[in-house]
Amino acid sequence: MYHVKEAFYTLQGEGAQAGRASVFCRFTGCNLWSGREVDRETAACTFCDTDFIGVDGEGGGRFHDAAALAEHLKALWPEAASGAVPYVVFTGGEPLLQLDTALIEAIKAKGFEIGVETNGTVRVPPGIDWLCVSPKGATTLKVLAGDELKLVYPQPEATPKRFEALDFTHFFLQPMDQGTPADNQARVRATTAYCMAHPRWRLSLQTHKIAGFA
Predict the structure, then answer these.
(1) Among 2, 9, 60, 149, who pairs with 168 as Cys (CB 3.0-4.6 Å)?
(2) 2-151: which CATH architecture?
(3) Catalytic residue positions?
(4) What is the C-alpha separation between 55 and 27, in angstroms, rounded?
(5) Phi-psi region of 162 (alpha: psi -120 to 50; beta: other; left: phi over 0)
(6) 136-195, pLDDT tens digit by residue?
(7) Is-contact 134 154, C-beta < 8 A?
(8) Residue 8: exposed, middle, or buried by beta-carbon count in 10 A (0-12, 13-18, 19+)?
(9) Which residues 6+ apart lie within 8 Å of 114 measured at CB?
(10) Domain residue spans of the chain
């Protein structure tokens, strides 16, 4: 059984794949926060901006097996998009609590490339084409290599220096989106300044929020 909060067709808004047409599959649940505001202050991740509770979002639901979910996701990819390789991004919450070999094989059989956005605390099954790890707070990473490390900035317990020795192809800093517009603009300036002073890191902005799409 797979529990999906929402699934929809859009453009990837962040990181190295920004602008790429994608089917997003957001799984229910996370191991770092319950998703309830009452638990936020004591959670391992306190700044999440995503609703991952329940199965009531657009395209969400309960899927009894991998074949059913793969068919559901395939139907979201437009038939007219024949010139591009279908691409699905599994996210959450924490997608690796549910994404397994059976689903990977089923979605691959539909011709998809698979991207995953994970907090890095759960081991990754084989078959992922694009792996993005976004560390949270003082949590211990179990995923030490991948395509993209995308660090929300600033985090007092997760400074960029903690991760620079890891085996990732791309290193991104993304300004934290929390609080007032003035707070967020100050974080954008601080993140920009850090990237300019430490050129290994590249700036990632949430272009889906800037452009106004999901």
Answers:
(1) 149
(2) Alpha-Beta Barrel (3.20)
(3) 24, 30, 45, 48-50, 117, 208
(4) 8
(5) alpha
(6) 999 999 999 999 999 999 999 999 999 999 999 999 999 998 888 998 999 999 999 999
(7) no
(8) middle
(9) 87, 88, 90, 104, 107, 108, 127, 128, 129, 130
(10) 2-151
